[in-house]
């Protein structure tokens, strides 16, 4: 992580401006776009592609029809949320997995390790991913692509000759859409979205929007030792499908409801230099996304022990921090 003293002159002001644009998009302002530079795309094809992915991903795959999509987690055998992916069924035997937060290499390696006698091929697909968020995101997407995805479906288009796939994605309070540019760098699409009224808030603005809305990501708030239920990621888990990697742990947690941590917000006194959250001389949580807000303050998402009340003082990455919100009430799956 970069400390405040290491930031180039004006960087903090630019971050505040991007955050302001991103937060305004949730309140009727122009939609904002951000390039998801850490996202990567994997194609799975073959007669066994659907059942193979169904047995590896935490959400339903075989139930997806052609043209349908959902969001899923990749868990390890301990049930920890290690990666997050959008799953799109392009054809009966062809799927796209859009993997977030630099976890493509890990996801690919994990999937390949579990191919035994399955007739499935896995191949990276050079692509760029852009997200458009805000109350008016549909307007910009409709103007740029000529169509807007609805519900659990996606649309395919070819603006300026580039093949794109777009689907709904909630990365802010108002939600929006992710758009995958197949085989391109996404700059022509970004230009079209900007011409349609979107503003470029970058990853800094996106981070502020996610923290403000408490929208978690497996590649940031998840990881080794973090269950989906603790990070607010269990919405991407099916509790009704058959066996998959980590399913036994998910069933056990659902039956007993015995997780003691949840997704919270921290107000930070400065730039953190690590990920451990400590109180009373012991580790009580894991620091995730850190974002600068329009007033210059720093806030972060963190997975914290439930006994920490709002207003509790902790150390997050070596800096003083305050717990902003109470632990969420848990609902059965």
Task: Give the overall silhouette.
Answer: globular
Number of strands: 17
Distinct helical segment count: 7
Main sheet properties:
6 strands, mixed
Order of adjacent strands in the largest pleated sheet: 8-9-10-7-1-11
**Which structural class do the helices and strands define?**
alpha+beta
Unreliable stretches (pLDDT < 50, length at least 5) are 1-6
The helicity comes to: 10-25%
Give the termini distance in whole angstroms. Answer: 35 Å
**N-to-C SSE series?**
HEEHEEEHEEHEEEHEHHEEEEEE
User: Measured on Cα atoms, how large is the radius of gyration?
Assistant: 20 Å
| Portion in beta strands | 25-35%
The overall pLDDT average reads 93
Topology of this protein?
Elements lengths: L10 H15 L6 E4 L4 E6 L3 H6 L14 E7 L5 E11 L2 E6 L4 H10 L7 E4 L2 E7 L3 H9 L8 E4 L6 E6 L6 E7 L4 H9 L3 E2 L1 H12 L33 H10 L4 E8 L7 E4 L2 E11 L5 E8 L7 E4 L2 E5 L10
Parallel strand pairs: 1-11
Antiparallel strand pairs: 1-7, 2-5, 2-6, 3-4, 4-5, 7-10, 8-9, 9-10, 12-15, 12-17, 13-14, 13-16, 14-15, 16-17
Primary descriptors:
333 residues; alpha+beta; six-stranded mixed beta sheet; 31% strand; disordered N terminus
Question: Overview of this structure, please?
Answer:
The protein has 333 residues and is α+β, with helices and mostly antiparallel strands. Helix content is 21%, strand content 31%. Strands 8-9-10-7-1-11 form a 6-stranded mixed beta sheet. Strands 12-15-14-13-16-17 form a 6-stranded antiparallel beta barrel. It has a 5-stranded antiparallel beta sheet with strand order 3-4-5-2-6. A hairpin with a 5-residue loop joins strand 3 and strand 4. Helix 1 packs across helix 6 and helix 4 packs across helix 5. The longest helix is centred in the first third of the chain and has 15 residues. The radius of gyration is 20 Å and the shape is globular.
């Amino acid at each position: 992580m970069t400390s405040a003293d290491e930031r180039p002159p004006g960087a903090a002001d630019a971050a505040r401006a991007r955050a302001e644009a991103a937060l305004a998009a949730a309140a009727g302002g122009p939609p904002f776009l951000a390039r998801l530079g850490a996202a990567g795309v994997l194609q799975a094809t073959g007669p066994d592609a659907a059942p193979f992915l169904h047995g590896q991903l935490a959400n339903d795959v075989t139930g997806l029809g052609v043209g349908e999509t959902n969001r899923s987690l990749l868990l390890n055998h301990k049930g920890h949320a290690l990666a997050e992916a959008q799953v799109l069924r392009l054809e009966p035997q062809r799927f796209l997995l859009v993997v977030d937060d630099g976890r493509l290499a890990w996801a690919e390696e994990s999937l390949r390790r579990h191919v035994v006698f399955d007739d499935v091929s896995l191949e990276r697909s050079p692509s760029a991913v852009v997200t458009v968020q805000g109350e008016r995101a549909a307007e910009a997407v409709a103007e740029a692509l000529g169509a807007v995805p609805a519900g659990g479906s996606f649309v395919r288009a070819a603006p300026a000759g580039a093949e794109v796939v777009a689907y709904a994605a909630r990365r802010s309070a108002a939600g929006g859409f992710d758009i995958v540019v197949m085989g391109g760098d996404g700059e022509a699409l970004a230009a079209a979205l900007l011409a349609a009224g979107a503003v470029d808030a970058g990853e800094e603005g996106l981070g502020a929007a996610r923290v403000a809305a408490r929208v978690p990501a497996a590649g940031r708030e998840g990881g080794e030792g973090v269950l989906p239920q603790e990070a607010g990621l269990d919405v991407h888990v099916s509790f009704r499908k058959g066996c998959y990697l980590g399913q036994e742990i998910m069933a056990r947690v659902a039956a007993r409801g015995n997780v003691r941590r949840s997704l919270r917000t921290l107000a930070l006194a400065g730039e953190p230099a690590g990920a451990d959250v400590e109180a009373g001389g012991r580790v009580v949580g894991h620091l995730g996304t850190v974002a600068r807000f329009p007033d210059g303050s720093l806030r972060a998402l963190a997975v914290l022990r439930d006994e920490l009340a709002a207003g509790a003082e902790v150390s997050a990455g070596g800096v003083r921090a305050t717990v902003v919100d109470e632990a969420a009430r848990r609902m059965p799956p």
